């Protein structure tokens, strides 16, 4: 089957060099490919620092272009074959020294559930290890590696065919077949509609009509419309293979959804992941108030041949132990003591604390994270109120106070995707500090629900998040002359209240994200259009919703309908240059209407900590929703 030619391959076909970064003792440079971009300013003309995929050849009907593309594909195929031969030769070498050990991780609190179709907060150490997905995707390499699927083909613009890896089974011995996979994919929309709001965003499947089990190991997707992003979506965790028998026997009702014929369908979730739910390389051994533990499953299916990131006979590491450590100081102490293998963001002002520690490695990345502030559309339905909030914020003061290595401006699409991102000049024409204009707009705005107090709501657990919230509250108080406060709660409570369906929220501004380390799946939706999308977080988190039960104002309905139409058009556009133009138009539309959300300046660089014993963990991809899916990483016990 033809499994390589798609929109994303055409986009990233151009090879470019990487830039390195070195900032001092104890810090090692990581490739800029971690975020598909260099870290230069928008006017950086250093060719050696050219970001990955800043340009791409447009699709064309011309014969010359067709021949050139064919030649490129032939060269790529030859390179792939050579790489495969090299990997095959390496595979015969003794790798016994890589096997064994326990990967030591942490998280701030217990999960709120582990069904891969609902949540992805404080549970990925279990979902990524105990479940199987179609494949992995490494954005900086533009590389798909086969997992549960061994081949796939887009036979026409609206038909996608999967070939399932033979002889796979769930942990209880049930076979992984086309019926199970079609069930797993089909339940996503049921869960979304019945649950009311999930962390999983429905833009990953809205274009799908149905999933058909066409024979024992073949699944066919029938789409309503073309979708340029479908291949990347299928690498996300929510496309995990779930055992239908376990859902039937142990599932708990999360509500009902209305079917086209008017009947109600009850929908079930498996938030505890009973044994047999998944077919991944590990099984869940413990899940309690202290953390989780997963252990290597002896009957895990082989990957033969093993694509990049996989191992023929399964992962090298025997177990993962994840401790619940709520306090930042305790996490840092545990890492410095050698008790953790992955730390997290390292505060730039604390870099000296990690110097001279041979058992740790601090890597520097171009900052790929976001720091967002969502606005409750139930209260801020008038564009002028949202505009006032954004102009009350002191952007340069924020950079000086909280970005010690410098900051930059970011629009609706992250700078991680430079082929789509707006320039600094374009963004700052919308994001600028003007308290006088802010107060005039605030006074002129229409408020169906009067706002005389602003609460900035955020998750607790990270000191920088608290500082961001405090700065936001101070900016609003000074810029608008209004009373403000902050409310910080545990992440699970924060997520539940953020997604709670209500005509008005019990907060005004939702602060989330640090604007430091972070990655990308390679999709403009994930980085970061979903935060503005009326079908996504714009609906579920920020009340810029079209759902009738929330009684949205006419202006919200009108603008939301327009934005959805624009988003659907770019999702269906497979011509690279045409799509880039559509995405630029969408960003200007969002910024002009101050729609739903806005981005605070992220850092220019970030720092992330790993133990020296962790090997082959692909740092360039660790933050790209990939790192914990890499089965070839291993632990060097004498490090």
Descriptive notes:
The structure is a single chain. With 639 residues, the protein is an alpha+beta fold. Helix content is 29%, strand content 19%. The protein has helices at residues 7-11, 63-91, 124-130, 178-195, 230-233, 244-250, 328-336, 383-392, 395-402, 424-428, 435-444, 463-480, 491-499, 537-540, 554-572, 576-593, 619-622; strands at 27-29, 102-107, 135-138, 143-146, 149-156, 159-164, 208-215, 218-223, 252-258, 264-269, 282-288, 291-296, 319-324, 342-345, 360-366, 372-375, 453-459, 483-489, 509-512, 597-599, 605-611, 614-615, 634-635. Strand 5 and strand 6 form a beta hairpin. The chain starts with 6 loop residues before the first helix and ends with a strand.
Task: Summarize this structure briefly.
This protein has 639 residues and is an alpha+beta fold.
Keywords, separated by commas or semicolons:
single chain; alpha+beta; D-Maltodextrin-Binding Protein, domain 2; Dipeptide-binding Protein, domain 3; 2 domains; five-stranded mixed beta sheet
Computed CA radius of gyration, to the nearest angstrom: 24 Å
Distance between the termini: 43 Å
Note the beta-strand portion: 15-25%
- Low confidence ranges: 1-76
Which geometry do the CA atoms define? globular
User: What's the CATH class label of the largest domain?
Assistant: Alpha Beta
The fold-level CATH name of the largest domain is D-Maltodextrin-Binding Protein, domain 2
Number of separate structural domains? 2
